[in-house]
Amino acid sequence: MSHVPPPADVLIVGSGLMGAAVARIVREGSPGARIHMVDGGAPIGSAPGQHLHDLRDDALRGTYIEQASPGIQSLYLGAAVTPAVSAELRSVSPGMYHLSSFDENAAGMPASAFAWNAGGMGVHWTAATPRPWGDEVFAYDGPDAWARDLGEAERLLGVHDAPFGVTNVGGRILQVLDSVFGAVSAPGRHPRTMPMAVAPKEDGRLPRTGPNRILPRMAAPNGDDFTLSTGTLAVALVHDGATVRGARVREVATGDEYEIEAGVTIVAADPIRTPQLLFASGIRPEALGRHLNEHAFLTGQVIADLERLEVALDEIPDPGPDEWVAGSYWLPHSGPTQPFHGQIMDRLYFDATGARLAYSVGLALYVPTEINPENRLVFDDTKPDVAGLPRITVRFTHSEADLALIEQARASQRAAGETLGDFDPERDSALLPPGSSLHYTGTARSGATDDGTSVCDSVGRVWGFSNLYLAGGATVPTAVVGNSTLTGMVTAVRAGRAVVGQLSGGRVDGHAAALNISR
């Protein structure tokens, strides 16, 4: 059987952006704390947690750029639903998979997916980090505390306000968008550049933030104070109903199971597998799996009329082979007067000889949807999925109000498209199936009180437990209109800070108690 690791002070389930952030905060606030991080997936490439945009492997990086270029997250998976994977998980290549591929019933959200690899979605994401605003904000401790936590989240992600800059044609796009939306935009919420977790370099490169940028220790993961175990799936948390003593894990390659003891445990898997692991562990509060939320995704693209924009095709900068957009812009939502988040990316097209053909502007609008406790994940503890965890059925429908707002978004998208160039809604716009954005929230939501509508408190501590925390999109209690990563990172900041406080208030020693589960 596998070697059973020594006890840890902190166990983190999930090696994505949120888990990396919690580990970073703990390392900064409690130097010397022993951290053990586990993830069921294996690395893509040679560096755990490296964003695919920045891999040294040209083939892998090229595949990512090709799949990411349309700006539609679900297309990272390819046009077709990924096929069912084998129950022999050791043979499953790291990457992204539709839920249905793991034998989940995802008919209610057919494009829903997750990452089965070290670094989670943090190695795939677009790095867009629009700032949450208005009803997206969950400021339990007031606006000053929210601003502090948001600032820390941006520090960890390395957010840059305008990594691509503003080209001449980009400036004209922003002017056109403001002519359409400016009158209904709140102060400070007019069209602008998209904040992104990107670090511009002097040589022109634009590396994205992956988990190992947040936590460089992932590059040298095994030592006295930090261990990263990839290909190691958490199958249950070990607890007595009030205290978690660690987790039972399974090595994917061998099938061996053993326990990892820890003083504090943080689950930062994703909004699908975080509640799944709690359910598998017998931790089943009323709100678990409920309040599943995702904005509707209305994609669109217009071939720009450059004469109208007063820009020549040969004046537009070529982003080069490692980038797929010339610029990245943002239409912030402004509440009821302008309820849509716009992700605006422009792109050059070339013919086979390398000559320029056209210039297009992507007009993706995210449409907020109502939070409904009946939109949920239902877990079956009598039938496992291919990972051996409770099988999931996804229940998700749009309300009448959602459908009406989607129609309003179509009109707004058409107004912008027709102002920019040749835009035909029948040809150039599509409402993507639920799950396409990969921006899921709410399935283990936080709350101010333990009233049955939340799973954890304001810092992610699960109600009724002294040392179990959650972080990430699952705990976000609001309907997020824009990309959800920065908003989710706020929950990691809060959980990490709470763990540091618990450790400094009297370290919970991972050696304290043996686990009463046979190895």
Describe the structure.
This protein is α+β, with helices and mostly antiparallel strands. The chain has ten helices and 18 strands. It has helices at 17-29, 58-68, 143-157, 168-181, 211-214, 273-280, 306-309, 400-420, 425-428, 485-504; strands spanning 8-13, 35-39, 95-98, 113-116, 192-193, 226-230, 232-239, 244-251, 257-267, 296-304, 327-331, 341-350, 356-367, 376-384, 390-395, 421-422, 429-431, 468-470. Strands 1, 2, 6, 7, 8, 9 and 18 form a seven-stranded mixed sheet that branches. Strands 5, 10, 11, 12, 13, 16 and 17 form a seven-stranded antiparallel sheet that branches. β12 (341-350) and β13 form a beta hairpin. α4 packs across α8 (400-420). The longest helix has 21 residues, at 400-420. The chain starts with 7 loop residues before the first strand and ends in a 15-residue tail after the last helix. The model is unreliable at 506-519 (pLDDT under 50).
Topology readout:
Blueprint: E1 8-13, H1 17-29, E2 35-39, H2 58-68, E3 95-98, E4 113-116, H3 143-157, H4 168-181, E5 192-193, H5 211-214, E6 226-230, E7 232-239, E8 244-251, E9 257-267, H6 273-280, E10 296-304, H7 306-309, E11 327-331, E12 341-350, E13 356-367, E14 376-384, E15 390-395, H8 400-420, E16 421-422, H9 425-428, E17 429-431, E18 468-470, H10 485-504
Parallel strand pairs: 1-2, 1-9, 2-6, 9-18
Antiparallel strand pairs: 3-4, 5-11, 7-8, 8-9, 10-13, 10-16, 10-17, 11-12, 12-13, 14-15
